[in-house]
Amino acid sequence: MEVKTIMVIGAGQMGNGIAQVAAQAGYTTFMNDISEDLVDRGMTAIAGSLDRMVKKEKITADDKTAILGRITPAVTLDPASECDLVIEAVVEKMSIKADIFSALDRLAPGHAILASNTSSLPITGIAAHTGRPEKVIGMHFMNPVPVMKLVEVINGLATTPEVTATVRAVAEAMGKIPVECRDVPGFVSNRVLMVMINEALWELYEGVATAEGIDQIMKLGMNHPMGPLALADLIGLDTVLAILGVLQDGYGDPKYRPSPLLKSYVAAGWLGRKTGRGIYEYK
Ligand code: CAA
Hints:
Blueprint: E1 5-9, H1 13-24, E2 28-32, H2 36-55, H3 61-69, E3 71-74, E4 85-88, H4 94-107, E5 113-116, H5 123-127, E6 136-141, E7 150-155, H6 161-173, E8 177-182, H7 189-206, H8 211-222, H9 228-235, H10 237-251, H11 260-268
Parallel strand pairs: 1-2, 1-4, 2-3, 4-5, 5-6, 7-8
Antiparallel strand pairs: 6-7
Helix pairs in contact: 1-2, 7-9, 7-10, 10-11
Bound molecules: acetoacetyl-coenzyme A.
The site of acetoacetyl-coenzyme A has 18 residues, from helix 2, helix 7 and helix 9.
């Protein structure tokens, strides 16, 4: 199936990154959020990211104008009626995703694929809120979206091979490398990553080393581009806690229990880079 028009639901750090790479790939793109302010902030973030690329001479100033021109902001879901593919990237709450997918199912044309960028919620469970479970799939982008090469493609129980092939082709057109996996809690990426991040948070809680020390050890010793605590701040501590909850519920294994430190940081609203304070402070 040919995809020409894409709608991204959610203009936050993942949503605006996905809208950016969609527009860079030449797709007609809608970017939706619930208020003008949120959509404006998403557009500003995209402009900033494109400015970086202009400065590095990866694109020209004219390319930037053309890419921005392909993105139409939207505060309702109505443009879904014109789309071949919708990619949802809202908060990791099943009740909110359920409402969005049932609305999208009503609005989007029959051929349209409904994808979720969820980092761990079950694709099959999301699909159950639509009348087209065979056209529902996970398209899990990594943060920062314009830079990271992977799209983890998660096949729900009912997802058809044609839908998977279409989504793989779109990811490739966006300059990404799609890799498939089954619909299990945390998929492949976060089942591994969250255990590492949580273990680092337990070490910090126990005073095994400073935050800087833990991150340095993992950067220098394992050649990771950033330490697990800095990465947790990039992902968002609330998201890390939510994913650990999905892993704990999904597998019933205490190895996924979150560090108490993580819970108190989230309760304090210290969510990482996006709030200016997480494990580290950001000015
Ligand atoms: N838009 C455009 N370009 C960007 C960018 C953005 N938002 N952010 C960074 N870049 C570019 C920079 O311009 C730079 O380009 P050049 O290589 O041409 O110089 C390049 O990316 C590297 O950036 P920096 O030099 O600023 O910084 P860095 O070298 O420290 O890299 C990083 C930053 C790419 C974030 C790197 O630290 C990294 O790869 N970190 C790990 C990220 C990671 O693991 N992400 C996955 C998180 S898990 C997830 O997202 C899924 C989930 O479900 C939780």
